[in-house]
Amino acid sequence: MQAEASSPAPRRWYVIHCKPRQEGRALENLVRQGFVCFLPKLSVRRPRNGRDVMVEESLFPGYLFINLDASQDNWAPIRSTRGVGRILRVGDRPLPVSDAIIESIRRRVAAQSPEPRLQPGERVVITDGCFAQLEAIFIAEDGDHRVTLLLNLLHQEHSLSFPAASVRRCAGA
User: Fold this and answer.
1) DSSP codes joined into one string, the chain
2) Each residue's pLDDT tens digit in the chain (173 positions)?
3) Where in the sequence of the chain do the CATH 2.30.30.30 domains occur?
4) What residue spans in the chain does CATH classification 3.30.70.940 cover?
5) What is the CATH class of 11-110?
6) CATH 2.30.30.30 describes domain 123-169
7) Which positions ≥6 away from 68 have C-beta within 8 Å?
């Protein structure tokens, strides 16, 4: 009986569970140690200080991916890296993620487009103030931080200006 020649283990992607809200810290410290990591992020529009701003948020909050060779890389420093909680495992073995899944995530992140702005005639709901929960029709943007809406009050249509952060698309729209 002849022994099979062992081929070197390929580099695989693994999932790291980070400490709460420390994905960035974990990524920075792992890269500084020479590891190849991937932290997928998406740009999303969020209200901040009365206006909508674009912010980057983690696609998988609390997790990042690391590319390792199971037989060659030293895994010990990963456990003590600031921001890292643990490597996801099945039993006592780290759980690998297929390259196809990582590539699919990369394509999704690369293909993202910013959330589309409101279009004239689109139905919206007012989220703040004395008109909260009322539906209206978006007319136009009124500067960087305000929008003009058509609101039906007492059986009459009124064109009113509202902070852009206090207006959202209707759920069914």
Assistant:
1) -PPPPPPPPPEEEEEEEESTT-HHHHHHHHHHTT-EEE--EEEEEEEETTEEEEEEEESSTTEEEEEEETTTS--HHHHTSTTEEEE-EETTEE-EE-HHHHHHHHHHHHT--PPPPP-TT-EEEE-SSTTTT-EEEEEEE-SSSEEEEEEEETTEEEEEEEEGGGEEE-TT-
2) 444 444 455 899 999 999 999 999 999 999 999 999 999 998 877 777 766 677 888 999 999 999 999 888 888 899 899 999 999 999 988 999 999 999 999 998 888 765 567 888 999 999 888 899 999 999 988 876 788 999 998 889 999 999 888 888 887 65
3) 123-169
4) 11-110
5) alpha beta
6) yes
7) 11, 12, 14, 35, 75
pTM above 0.90, yes or no: no
- Rounded CA-CA distance 155/29 in Å is 61
